[in-house]
Amino acid sequence: MEQERFDAIVVGAGPSGNAAAYTMAREGLNVLQLERGEYPGSKNVQGAILYADALERIIPDFRDDAPLERHVVEQRVWMMDDASHTGMHYRSDGFNEERPNRYTIIRAQFDRWFSRKVREAGATVLCETTVTELLRDGRGKVIGVLTDRHGGPLLADVVVLAEGVNGLVGQRAGLRPELRPHDVALAVKEMHFLPQEVIESRFNLAGDEGVVIEAMGTITRGMTGTAFLYTNRESISVGIGCMVGDFAERKVSPYALLDAFKSHPSIRPLLADSEVREYAAHLIPEGGYKAIPQLTGDGWLAVGDAGHFVNAVHREGSNLAMTSGRVAGETVAWLKRRREPCTAAGLAEYRRRLEASFVMKDMRKYRGIPALLHRNRHLLDLYPRLASQAAQTWLRVDGVDKRTKENQILGSLRRARGLRGLMGDAFRLARAWR
Amino acid sequence: MSGARIEEKLFQNRYLVDAGRPHIKVRAHAVPSPALRALVHACPANCYSETDTGAVEVATDGCMECGTCRVLTQATGEIEWSYPRGGFGVLYKFG
User: Fold this and answer.
1) DSSP secondary structure string, A242-276?
2) Inter-residue contact B59 to A12 (CB < 8 Å)
3) Residue pair A62/A55 in contact by the 8 Å Cβ criterion
4) What are the residue ranges of helices labelled H in A251-400?
5) What is the pLDDT of residues A296-332, one digit of tens each?
6) Residue A230, SS3?
7) Where in the sequence is the domain holding B87, given as residue range(s)?
8) Are strands A70-80 and A209-217 parallel, antiparallel or unpaired?
9) Radius of gyration, alpha carbons of chain B
Protein backbone atom coordinates (compact mmCIF):
# COMPACT_ATOMS: atom_id res chain seq x y z
CA MET A 1 0.00 0.00 0.00
CA GLU A 2 1.32 3.40 -0.87
CA GLN A 3 2.02 5.51 2.15
CA GLU A 4 0.78 9.02 2.18
CA ARG A 5 2.25 11.35 4.70
CA PHE A 6 0.03 14.05 6.18
CA ASP A 7 0.96 17.34 7.74
CA ALA A 8 -1.41 16.52 10.58
CA ILE A 9 -3.67 13.70 11.77
CA VAL A 10 -6.56 14.71 14.03
CA VAL A 11 -8.03 11.96 16.22
CA GLY A 12 -11.71 12.71 16.80
CA ALA A 13 -14.38 14.88 15.17
CA GLY A 14 -15.94 16.71 18.10
CA PRO A 15 -15.71 20.48 18.61
CA SER A 16 -12.00 20.53 19.45
CA GLY A 17 -10.95 18.18 16.65
CA ASN A 18 -13.11 19.98 14.11
CA ALA A 19 -11.73 23.35 15.19
CA ALA A 20 -8.16 22.05 14.84
CA ALA A 21 -8.76 20.29 11.52
CA TYR A 22 -10.62 23.26 10.05
CA THR A 23 -7.97 25.76 11.13
CA MET A 24 -5.12 23.71 9.70
CA ALA A 25 -6.94 22.87 6.45
CA ARG A 26 -7.72 26.55 5.90
CA GLU A 27 -4.03 27.26 6.27
CA GLY A 28 -3.36 24.86 3.42
CA LEU A 29 -2.10 21.92 5.47
CA ASN A 30 -2.74 18.35 4.35
CA VAL A 31 -5.01 17.14 7.14
CA LEU A 32 -6.46 13.70 7.87
CA GLN A 33 -9.17 13.46 10.52
CA LEU A 34 -10.24 10.10 11.98
CA GLU A 35 -13.57 9.51 13.71
CA ARG A 36 -14.71 6.21 15.17
CA GLY A 37 -18.44 6.97 14.86
CA GLU A 38 -20.56 6.24 11.80
CA TYR A 39 -20.83 10.01 11.35
CA PRO A 40 -19.32 12.90 13.29
CA GLY A 41 -21.45 13.40 16.40
CA SER A 42 -22.71 9.84 16.61
CA LYS A 43 -20.59 9.24 19.72
CA ASN A 44 -20.80 12.71 21.19
CA VAL A 45 -23.00 14.07 23.96
CA GLN A 46 -23.43 17.56 25.31
CA GLY A 47 -26.21 19.52 27.05
CA ALA A 48 -25.84 21.43 24.75
CA ILE A 49 -25.01 25.12 24.66
CA LEU A 50 -22.97 26.66 21.86
CA TYR A 51 -20.94 29.72 22.77
CA ALA A 52 -20.95 31.91 19.69
CA ASP A 53 -17.72 33.76 20.38
CA ALA A 54 -15.53 30.66 20.26
CA LEU A 55 -17.05 29.50 16.95
CA GLU A 56 -17.09 32.99 15.43
CA ARG A 57 -13.33 33.13 15.74
CA ILE A 58 -13.18 30.02 13.55
CA ILE A 59 -16.17 30.39 11.21
CA PRO A 60 -17.34 34.03 11.42
CA ASP A 61 -20.52 33.50 9.39
CA PHE A 62 -21.57 30.23 11.07
CA ARG A 63 -25.06 31.61 11.69
CA ASP A 64 -25.81 31.40 7.96
CA ASP A 65 -26.19 27.64 7.93
CA ALA A 66 -25.30 26.04 11.29
CA PRO A 67 -28.11 24.01 12.87
CA LEU A 68 -28.94 26.24 15.84
CA GLU A 69 -31.93 25.61 18.08
CA ARG A 70 -32.69 28.68 20.21
CA HIS A 71 -30.66 31.69 21.32
CA VAL A 72 -30.58 31.99 25.10
CA VAL A 73 -32.41 35.00 26.52
CA GLU A 74 -32.93 33.68 30.03
CA GLN A 75 -30.72 31.90 32.54
CA ARG A 76 -32.20 30.31 35.63
CA VAL A 77 -30.10 28.98 38.49
CA TRP A 78 -32.08 26.85 40.89
CA MET A 79 -31.14 25.63 44.34
CA MET A 80 -33.44 22.72 44.97
CA ASP A 81 -34.64 20.77 47.93
CA ASP A 82 -37.10 17.91 47.68
CA ALA A 83 -40.19 20.09 47.32
CA SER A 84 -38.97 23.50 46.20
CA HIS A 85 -36.49 25.53 44.30
CA THR A 86 -34.98 28.88 45.24
CA GLY A 87 -34.14 30.56 41.99
CA MET A 88 -32.11 33.32 40.48
CA HIS A 89 -33.32 34.24 37.02
CA TYR A 90 -31.79 36.63 34.58
CA ARG A 91 -33.69 37.47 31.43
CA SER A 92 -32.83 40.30 29.10
CA ASP A 93 -34.09 41.61 25.81
CA GLY A 94 -30.46 42.56 25.32
CA PHE A 95 -29.86 38.89 24.41
CA ASN A 96 -32.20 39.37 21.43
CA GLU A 97 -29.36 40.78 19.41
CA GLU A 98 -28.27 40.45 15.82
CA ARG A 99 -25.46 38.10 16.75
CA PRO A 100 -26.67 36.26 19.82
CA ASN A 101 -24.09 35.12 22.34
CA ARG A 102 -25.33 31.63 23.27
CA TYR A 103 -27.48 29.07 21.50
CA THR A 104 -28.89 25.71 22.40
CA ILE A 105 -27.85 23.08 19.88
CA ILE A 106 -28.27 19.36 19.20
CA ARG A 107 -24.79 17.97 19.01
CA ALA A 108 -25.28 15.13 16.53
CA GLN A 109 -26.62 17.70 14.05
CA PHE A 110 -24.12 20.41 14.90
CA ASP A 111 -21.09 18.12 14.68
CA ARG A 112 -22.17 16.94 11.23
CA TRP A 113 -22.43 20.55 10.06
CA PHE A 114 -19.02 21.40 11.52
CA SER A 115 -17.52 18.33 9.89
CA ARG A 116 -18.92 19.39 6.51
CA LYS A 117 -17.10 22.71 6.96
CA VAL A 118 -13.92 20.81 7.75
CA ARG A 119 -14.22 18.81 4.53
CA GLU A 120 -15.03 21.94 2.52
CA ALA A 121 -11.87 23.50 3.93
CA GLY A 122 -9.94 20.64 2.35
CA ALA A 123 -9.35 18.10 5.09
CA THR A 124 -9.88 14.37 4.55
CA VAL A 125 -12.35 12.96 7.08
CA LEU A 126 -12.55 9.19 7.63
CA CYS A 127 -15.40 7.95 9.78
CA GLU A 128 -15.99 4.46 11.22
CA THR A 129 -12.28 4.37 11.94
CA THR A 130 -11.02 3.76 15.48
CA VAL A 131 -7.44 4.72 16.17
CA THR A 132 -5.87 1.84 18.04
CA GLU A 133 -2.34 3.02 18.67
CA LEU A 134 0.13 5.85 18.31
CA LEU A 135 3.24 5.18 16.27
CA ARG A 136 6.61 6.47 17.41
CA ASP A 137 10.06 6.53 15.92
CA GLY A 138 13.18 5.25 17.64
CA ARG A 139 13.53 8.41 19.72
CA GLY A 140 9.94 8.35 20.93
CA LYS A 141 8.57 11.06 18.64
CA VAL A 142 4.97 10.44 17.64
CA ILE A 143 4.93 9.93 13.87
CA GLY A 144 1.45 8.61 13.14
CA VAL A 145 -1.30 6.20 14.10
CA LEU A 146 -2.60 2.71 13.52
CA THR A 147 -6.33 2.18 13.01
CA ASP A 148 -8.72 -0.76 12.95
CA ARG A 149 -9.75 -0.02 9.38
CA HIS A 150 -6.81 1.19 7.39
CA GLY A 151 -4.31 -1.55 6.67
CA GLY A 152 -1.03 0.15 7.33
CA PRO A 153 0.33 2.96 9.41
CA LEU A 154 -0.89 6.50 8.78
CA LEU A 155 1.96 8.96 9.12
CA ALA A 156 1.99 12.66 9.92
CA ASP A 157 4.25 15.41 11.22
CA VAL A 158 1.92 15.92 14.16
CA VAL A 159 -0.98 14.05 15.77
CA VAL A 160 -3.69 16.18 17.39
CA LEU A 161 -5.42 14.15 20.12
CA ALA A 162 -9.02 15.37 20.11
CA GLU A 163 -10.29 12.03 21.31
CA GLY A 164 -12.43 13.26 24.16
CA VAL A 165 -12.51 12.68 27.89
CA ASN A 166 -12.40 8.90 27.63
CA GLY A 167 -9.55 9.04 25.14
CA LEU A 168 -7.71 5.76 25.17
CA VAL A 169 -5.07 6.53 22.57
CA GLY A 170 -3.15 9.11 24.58
CA GLN A 171 -3.66 7.28 27.86
CA ARG A 172 -2.46 3.93 26.57
CA ALA A 173 0.55 5.60 25.03
CA GLY A 174 1.39 6.98 28.47
CA LEU A 175 1.00 10.60 27.37
CA ARG A 176 -1.46 11.36 30.14
CA PRO A 177 -2.47 9.62 33.34
CA GLU A 178 -5.67 7.64 33.74
CA LEU A 179 -8.69 9.66 34.89
CA ARG A 180 -9.37 9.54 38.61
CA PRO A 181 -12.95 8.86 39.77
CA HIS A 182 -13.10 12.22 41.57
CA ASP A 183 -11.82 14.19 38.58
CA VAL A 184 -14.55 13.14 36.22
CA ALA A 185 -18.34 13.44 36.28
CA LEU A 186 -20.85 11.07 34.74
CA ALA A 187 -23.81 12.87 33.17
CA VAL A 188 -26.97 11.23 31.87
CA LYS A 189 -29.42 13.04 29.66
CA GLU A 190 -32.73 12.57 27.88
CA MET A 191 -34.25 14.29 24.88
CA HIS A 192 -37.90 15.14 25.47
CA PHE A 193 -39.93 16.17 22.45
CA LEU A 194 -42.85 18.59 22.59
CA PRO A 195 -44.57 20.79 20.00
CA GLN A 196 -42.75 24.06 19.46
CA GLU A 197 -45.68 26.17 20.64
CA VAL A 198 -45.98 24.17 23.87
CA ILE A 199 -42.34 24.85 24.68
CA GLU A 200 -42.76 28.54 23.88
CA SER A 201 -45.81 28.98 26.08
CA ARG A 202 -44.40 26.87 28.93
CA PHE A 203 -41.20 28.88 29.07
CA ASN A 204 -42.58 32.27 28.06
CA LEU A 205 -40.66 32.41 24.80
CA ALA A 206 -41.24 34.11 21.47
CA GLY A 207 -39.77 32.85 18.20
CA ASP A 208 -36.28 31.40 18.63
CA GLU A 209 -35.81 32.59 22.20
CA GLY A 210 -34.59 29.96 24.64
CA VAL A 211 -34.21 29.33 28.37
CA VAL A 212 -31.58 27.35 30.23
CA ILE A 213 -31.92 26.08 33.78
CA GLU A 214 -28.92 24.97 35.84
CA ALA A 215 -29.90 23.26 39.08
CA MET A 216 -28.21 21.98 42.19
CA GLY A 217 -29.21 20.83 45.62
CA THR A 218 -30.71 17.74 47.20
CA ILE A 219 -31.39 16.44 43.67
CA THR A 220 -27.82 15.05 43.70
CA ARG A 221 -28.34 13.39 47.11
CA GLY A 222 -25.18 14.66 48.71
CA MET A 223 -23.01 13.99 45.69
CA THR A 224 -21.08 16.73 43.90
CA GLY A 225 -23.02 17.52 40.76
CA THR A 226 -25.57 19.60 38.92
CA ALA A 227 -28.61 19.13 36.73
CA PHE A 228 -29.78 21.04 33.69
CA LEU A 229 -32.75 21.67 31.47
CA TYR A 230 -32.29 23.40 28.11
CA THR A 231 -34.98 24.39 25.63
CA ASN A 232 -34.42 23.41 22.02
CA ARG A 233 -36.81 24.28 19.20
CA GLU A 234 -39.00 21.19 19.51
CA SER A 235 -37.36 19.38 22.36
CA ILE A 236 -36.02 19.80 25.87
CA SER A 237 -32.64 18.44 26.92
CA VAL A 238 -32.75 17.37 30.54
CA GLY A 239 -29.90 15.79 32.44
CA ILE A 240 -27.98 15.37 35.65
CA GLY A 241 -24.36 14.60 36.43
CA CYS A 242 -22.26 13.81 39.48
CA MET A 243 -18.67 12.78 40.10
CA VAL A 244 -18.01 9.17 39.15
CA GLY A 245 -16.39 8.50 42.52
CA ASP A 246 -19.52 9.76 44.27
CA PHE A 247 -21.77 7.47 42.24
CA ALA A 248 -19.63 4.52 43.22
CA GLU A 249 -19.60 5.40 46.92
CA ARG A 250 -23.22 6.45 47.35
CA LYS A 251 -24.84 3.45 45.70
CA VAL A 252 -27.05 5.67 43.56
CA SER A 253 -27.78 4.74 39.98
CA PRO A 254 -27.55 7.55 37.43
CA TYR A 255 -30.88 6.81 35.74
CA ALA A 256 -32.70 6.71 39.09
CA LEU A 257 -31.20 10.11 39.86
CA LEU A 258 -32.37 11.47 36.50
CA ASP A 259 -35.85 10.04 36.98
CA ALA A 260 -36.08 11.62 40.43
CA PHE A 261 -35.01 14.99 39.00
CA LYS A 262 -37.60 14.72 36.23
CA SER A 263 -40.34 14.01 38.74
CA HIS A 264 -39.38 16.90 41.03
CA PRO A 265 -42.45 19.15 41.44
CA SER A 266 -40.57 22.08 39.90
CA ILE A 267 -39.48 20.10 36.83
CA ARG A 268 -42.32 17.68 36.16
CA PRO A 269 -44.79 20.25 34.75
CA LEU A 270 -42.14 21.53 32.34
CA LEU A 271 -41.78 18.06 30.81
CA ALA A 272 -45.43 16.97 30.97
CA ASP A 273 -46.71 14.99 27.96
CA SER A 274 -43.31 14.96 26.29
CA GLU A 275 -42.03 12.05 24.26
CA VAL A 276 -38.56 10.74 25.13
CA ARG A 277 -36.54 9.83 22.06
CA GLU A 278 -33.05 9.30 23.40
CA TYR A 279 -31.14 8.51 26.57
CA ALA A 280 -27.44 9.32 26.62
CA ALA A 281 -24.51 9.10 29.01
CA HIS A 282 -21.10 10.72 28.86
CA LEU A 283 -18.18 11.63 31.09
CA ILE A 284 -17.22 15.25 31.74
CA PRO A 285 -13.67 16.12 32.84
CA GLU A 286 -14.31 18.23 35.94
CA GLY A 287 -11.07 17.95 37.85
CA GLY A 288 -10.18 21.51 36.88
CA TYR A 289 -6.78 23.08 36.45
CA LYS A 290 -4.93 20.59 38.61
CA ALA A 291 -6.17 17.70 36.48
CA ILE A 292 -4.91 19.17 33.21
CA PRO A 293 -2.45 16.62 31.82
CA GLN A 294 0.64 17.23 29.76
CA LEU A 295 -0.66 18.95 26.63
CA THR A 296 2.22 18.66 24.18
CA GLY A 297 5.14 16.47 23.38
CA ASP A 298 7.30 15.39 20.48
CA GLY A 299 4.89 15.19 17.54
CA TRP A 300 1.62 15.42 19.46
CA LEU A 301 -0.73 17.75 21.28
CA ALA A 302 -4.00 17.32 23.18
CA VAL A 303 -7.09 19.52 22.82
CA GLY A 304 -10.63 19.74 24.20
CA ASP A 305 -11.83 17.19 26.75
CA ALA A 306 -8.64 15.17 26.18
CA GLY A 307 -6.86 18.19 27.67
CA HIS A 308 -9.38 18.34 30.53
CA PHE A 309 -10.59 21.78 29.43
CA VAL A 310 -13.89 22.20 31.24
CA ASN A 311 -14.87 25.13 33.41
CA ALA A 312 -17.29 23.27 35.67
CA VAL A 313 -18.27 26.36 37.66
CA HIS A 314 -19.65 28.10 34.57
CA ARG A 315 -20.77 24.91 32.82
CA GLU A 316 -18.49 25.79 29.89
CA GLY A 317 -16.66 23.18 27.86
CA SER A 318 -17.39 23.32 24.15
CA ASN A 319 -16.00 26.85 23.91
CA LEU A 320 -12.80 25.79 25.62
CA ALA A 321 -12.71 22.79 23.29
CA MET A 322 -13.10 24.88 20.14
CA THR A 323 -10.63 27.48 21.35
CA SER A 324 -7.98 24.93 22.30
CA GLY A 325 -8.51 23.19 18.94
CA ARG A 326 -8.18 26.45 17.05
CA VAL A 327 -5.07 27.50 18.97
CA ALA A 328 -3.52 24.06 18.39
CA GLY A 329 -4.25 24.34 14.67
CA GLU A 330 -2.84 27.85 14.51
CA THR A 331 0.30 26.75 16.33
CA VAL A 332 0.92 23.87 13.92
CA ALA A 333 0.30 26.16 10.92
CA TRP A 334 2.66 28.74 12.43
CA LEU A 335 5.42 26.13 12.79
CA LYS A 336 4.85 25.03 9.19
CA ARG A 337 5.14 28.57 7.90
CA ARG A 338 8.42 28.97 9.76
CA ARG A 339 9.53 25.59 8.41
CA GLU A 340 10.07 24.39 11.95
CA PRO A 341 9.45 20.75 12.93
CA CYS A 342 6.66 19.73 15.30
CA THR A 343 8.99 18.88 18.14
CA ALA A 344 8.17 19.17 21.83
CA ALA A 345 9.95 22.52 21.89
CA GLY A 346 8.05 23.86 18.89
CA LEU A 347 4.64 22.64 20.03
CA ALA A 348 5.16 24.14 23.49
CA GLU A 349 4.05 27.35 21.79
CA TYR A 350 0.50 25.91 21.94
CA ARG A 351 0.56 25.90 25.74
CA ARG A 352 2.00 29.43 25.81
CA ARG A 353 -0.80 30.70 23.59
CA LEU A 354 -3.42 28.93 25.68
CA GLU A 355 -1.99 30.48 28.84
CA ALA A 356 -2.54 33.90 27.30
CA SER A 357 -6.19 33.08 26.48
CA PHE A 358 -9.30 32.85 28.63
CA VAL A 359 -8.97 29.07 28.54
CA MET A 360 -6.08 28.76 30.99
CA LYS A 361 -6.94 31.95 32.84
CA ASP A 362 -10.38 30.61 33.74
CA MET A 363 -9.07 27.13 34.48
CA ARG A 364 -6.52 28.60 36.86
CA LYS A 365 -9.01 30.96 38.51
CA TYR A 366 -11.15 28.07 39.72
CA ARG A 367 -8.32 25.64 40.47
CA GLY A 368 -9.42 25.28 44.10
CA ILE A 369 -13.11 24.61 43.44
CA PRO A 370 -13.07 20.86 42.62
CA ALA A 371 -11.23 19.99 45.86
CA LEU A 372 -13.46 22.36 47.84
CA LEU A 373 -16.62 20.69 46.58
CA HIS A 374 -15.17 17.24 47.08
CA ARG A 375 -14.28 17.94 50.70
CA ASN A 376 -17.42 19.95 51.42
CA ARG A 377 -20.20 18.02 49.79
CA HIS A 378 -22.66 19.50 52.29
CA LEU A 379 -22.45 22.81 50.44
CA LEU A 380 -24.67 21.50 47.64
CA ASP A 381 -27.07 19.76 49.98
CA LEU A 382 -27.36 21.87 53.11
CA TYR A 383 -27.52 25.38 51.71
CA PRO A 384 -30.32 24.78 49.20
CA ARG A 385 -32.35 23.26 52.06
CA LEU A 386 -31.59 26.21 54.33
CA ALA A 387 -32.51 28.68 51.56
CA SER A 388 -35.80 26.91 51.06
CA GLN A 389 -36.59 26.86 54.78
CA ALA A 390 -35.77 30.55 55.08
CA ALA A 391 -37.97 31.48 52.13
CA GLN A 392 -40.77 29.29 53.44
CA THR A 393 -40.59 30.94 56.87
CA TRP A 394 -40.39 34.41 55.37
CA LEU A 395 -43.20 34.08 52.85
CA ARG A 396 -45.76 32.13 54.84
CA VAL A 397 -48.26 34.47 56.51
CA ASP A 398 -49.40 32.75 59.67
CA GLY A 399 -49.82 35.26 62.46
CA VAL A 400 -46.17 35.03 63.54
CA ASP A 401 -44.53 38.46 63.69
CA LYS A 402 -41.64 39.28 61.38
CA ARG A 403 -38.97 39.68 64.06
CA THR A 404 -39.76 36.21 65.37
CA LYS A 405 -39.52 34.91 61.81
CA GLU A 406 -36.10 36.56 61.39
CA ASN A 407 -34.93 34.92 64.58
CA GLN A 408 -36.30 31.57 63.42
CA ILE A 409 -34.35 31.86 60.17
CA LEU A 410 -31.10 32.86 61.88
CA GLY A 411 -31.64 30.13 64.46
CA SER A 412 -32.09 27.47 61.78
CA LEU A 413 -28.83 28.56 60.10
CA ARG A 414 -26.96 28.41 63.40
CA ARG A 415 -28.43 25.05 64.33
CA ALA A 416 -27.61 23.57 60.94
CA ARG A 417 -24.00 24.64 60.67
CA GLY A 418 -23.01 26.77 63.66
CA LEU A 419 -21.59 30.26 63.33
CA ARG A 420 -18.06 28.98 62.85
CA GLY A 421 -19.24 26.51 60.23
CA LEU A 422 -21.10 29.23 58.32
CA MET A 423 -18.14 31.56 58.41
CA GLY A 424 -15.74 28.76 57.49
CA ASP A 425 -17.85 27.82 54.46
CA ALA A 426 -18.00 31.44 53.34
CA PHE A 427 -14.26 31.84 53.79
CA ARG A 428 -13.36 28.63 51.97
CA LEU A 429 -15.68 29.45 49.08
CA ALA A 430 -14.34 32.99 48.78
CA ARG A 431 -10.77 31.73 48.82
CA ALA A 432 -11.43 29.10 46.15
CA TRP A 433 -13.31 31.61 44.01
CA ARG A 434 -10.90 34.49 43.97
CA MET B 1 -35.92 2.05 39.61
CA SER B 2 -36.41 -1.39 38.14
CA GLY B 3 -34.26 -2.88 35.43
CA ALA B 4 -37.24 -2.92 33.09
CA ARG B 5 -37.45 0.87 33.08
CA ILE B 6 -33.83 1.33 32.06
CA GLU B 7 -34.38 -1.14 29.24
CA GLU B 8 -37.20 1.08 28.01
CA LYS B 9 -34.84 4.05 28.03
CA LEU B 10 -32.18 2.17 26.08
CA PHE B 11 -34.79 0.93 23.63
CA GLN B 12 -35.04 4.52 22.33
CA ASN B 13 -31.40 4.47 21.32
CA ARG B 14 -29.80 3.27 18.11
CA TYR B 15 -27.01 0.73 18.27
CA LEU B 16 -25.04 -1.23 15.75
CA VAL B 17 -24.05 -4.28 17.77
CA ASP B 18 -20.81 -5.99 16.78
CA ALA B 19 -22.18 -9.48 17.38
CA GLY B 20 -19.77 -11.82 19.09
CA ARG B 21 -17.22 -9.09 19.78
CA PRO B 22 -18.05 -7.45 23.10
CA HIS B 23 -15.79 -4.43 23.63
CA ILE B 24 -15.78 -4.87 27.42
CA LYS B 25 -14.85 -8.05 29.25
CA VAL B 26 -14.81 -8.79 32.96
CA ARG B 27 -11.81 -10.86 33.93
CA ALA B 28 -12.60 -14.14 35.65
CA HIS B 29 -12.88 -13.64 39.40
CA ALA B 30 -14.25 -15.36 42.48
CA VAL B 31 -15.00 -12.27 44.54
CA PRO B 32 -15.49 -8.85 42.92
CA SER B 33 -13.75 -5.83 44.42
CA PRO B 34 -16.00 -3.07 45.83
CA ALA B 35 -15.19 -1.06 42.68
CA LEU B 36 -16.35 -3.84 40.37
CA ARG B 37 -19.45 -4.45 42.47
CA ALA B 38 -20.26 -0.73 42.33
CA LEU B 39 -20.69 -0.99 38.56
CA VAL B 40 -23.91 -2.92 39.11
CA HIS B 41 -25.56 0.36 40.16
CA ALA B 42 -23.19 2.99 38.72
CA CYS B 43 -23.30 1.92 35.06
CA PRO B 44 -25.81 4.27 33.37
CA ALA B 45 -26.88 1.52 30.96
CA ASN B 46 -27.22 -1.16 33.64
CA CYS B 47 -24.78 -3.37 31.72
CA TYR B 48 -23.42 -5.02 34.86
CA SER B 49 -25.20 -7.57 37.00
CA GLU B 50 -24.40 -9.91 39.82
CA THR B 51 -24.60 -13.65 39.22
CA ASP B 52 -25.96 -16.23 41.64
CA THR B 53 -22.42 -16.98 42.80
CA GLY B 54 -21.72 -13.31 43.59
CA ALA B 55 -19.53 -12.63 40.58
CA VAL B 56 -20.11 -9.60 38.33
CA GLU B 57 -20.82 -10.04 34.63
CA VAL B 58 -21.28 -7.61 31.77
CA ALA B 59 -23.61 -7.48 28.77
CA THR B 60 -22.48 -4.67 26.47
CA ASP B 61 -25.44 -4.39 24.09
CA GLY B 62 -26.84 -1.23 25.72
CA CYS B 63 -23.44 0.32 26.44
CA MET B 64 -23.15 4.04 25.72
CA GLU B 65 -19.33 3.89 25.82
CA CYS B 66 -19.06 6.51 28.56
CA GLY B 67 -16.09 4.89 30.30
CA THR B 68 -17.40 5.03 33.87
CA CYS B 69 -16.64 1.35 34.44
CA ARG B 70 -13.15 1.75 33.04
CA VAL B 71 -12.38 4.69 35.32
CA LEU B 72 -13.74 2.96 38.41
CA THR B 73 -11.87 -0.32 37.92
CA GLN B 74 -8.60 1.00 36.51
CA ALA B 75 -6.89 0.42 39.85
CA THR B 76 -8.06 -3.19 40.18
CA GLY B 77 -7.67 -4.11 36.52
CA GLU B 78 -10.78 -6.27 36.63
CA ILE B 79 -12.14 -5.29 33.24
CA GLU B 80 -10.73 -5.03 29.75
CA TRP B 81 -12.10 -2.01 27.95
CA SER B 82 -11.69 -0.99 24.35
CA TYR B 83 -13.81 1.01 21.98
CA PRO B 84 -16.06 -0.92 19.61
CA ARG B 85 -14.70 -1.30 16.11
CA GLY B 86 -15.18 1.79 13.97
CA GLY B 87 -18.86 2.36 13.16
CA PHE B 88 -20.17 -0.09 15.76
CA GLY B 89 -21.74 0.62 19.13
CA VAL B 90 -24.06 3.44 20.14
CA LEU B 91 -25.21 5.83 17.39
CA TYR B 92 -26.62 8.99 18.90
CA LYS B 93 -29.35 10.68 16.88
CA PHE B 94 -29.23 13.81 19.02
CA GLY B 95 -26.37 13.41 21.50
Assistant:
1) EEHHHHHHHT--HHHHHHHHHTSTTTHHHHTT-EE
2) no
3) yes
4) 254-262, 268-271, 318-337, 344-355, 358-365, 369-375, 379-395
5) 999 999 999 999 999 999 999 999 999 999 999 999 9
6) strand
7) 3-91
8) parallel
9) 13
> Please, what's the b/e burial string for A88-110 (b: 16 or more CB within 10 A of its CB; e: otherwise)?
eeeeeeebeeeebebbbbbbbbb
Q: A247 and B68 in contact by Cβ < 8 A?
A: yes
Q: What's the fold here for domain A184-285?
A: D-Amino Acid Oxidase; Chain A, domain 2 (3.30.9)
Contact B6 A255 (CB under 8 A): yes
Out of B41, B71, B86, name the one closest to residue A129 (CB): B86
How buried is residue A197: exposed, middle or buried, by Cβ count under 10 Å (0-12/13-18/19+)?
A: exposed
Going from N- to C-terminal start, the domains of chain A cover 5-68+105-177+293-356, 184-285, 370-433
- Which chain B residue has its CA at the smallest distance from A244's CA? B68
User: What is the Cα A197 distance to its own chain's centre?
Assistant: 29
> Over pLDDT 90: what percentage of chain A?
94
Nearest CA in chain B to A172: B82
| Contact (Cβ atoms closer than 8 angstroms) between residue A178 and residue A37 | no
CATH (domain of B41): 3.30.70.20
Cβ contacts from A onto B, under 8 A: 139
CA atoms of A210 and A78, how far apart (whole Å) = 17
> What are the C-alpha distances in Å from A94 to residues A72, A99, A320, A337?
11, 11, 24, 42
From start to end of A162-287, where are the E strands?
184-193, 209-217, 225-231, 235-243, 275-285
pLDDT single digits (tens) A378-395: 889 999 999 999 999 999
Q: In this complex, is the C-beta atom of A154 within 8 Å of any C-beta atom belonging to chain B?
A: no
ipTM confidence: 0.96
* Superfamily designation of domain A5-68+105-177+293-356: FAD/NAD(P)-binding domain (3.50.50.60)
Q: What is the pLDDT of residues B10-27, one digit of tens each?
A: 999 999 999 999 999 999
Among A37, A191, A259, the residue with its CB nearest the CB of B94 is A191
The residue of chain B with its CA nearest to that of A242 is B42
3-class state of residue B22 by DSSP: coil
* Residue pLDDT, tens place only, A164-223: 999 999 999 999 999 999 999 999 999 999 999 999 999 999 999 999 999 999 999 999
Number of domains composing chain B: 1
CB A393 within 8 A of CB A409: yes
User: Which member of A184, A249, A278 has the closest CB to residue B94?
Assistant: A278
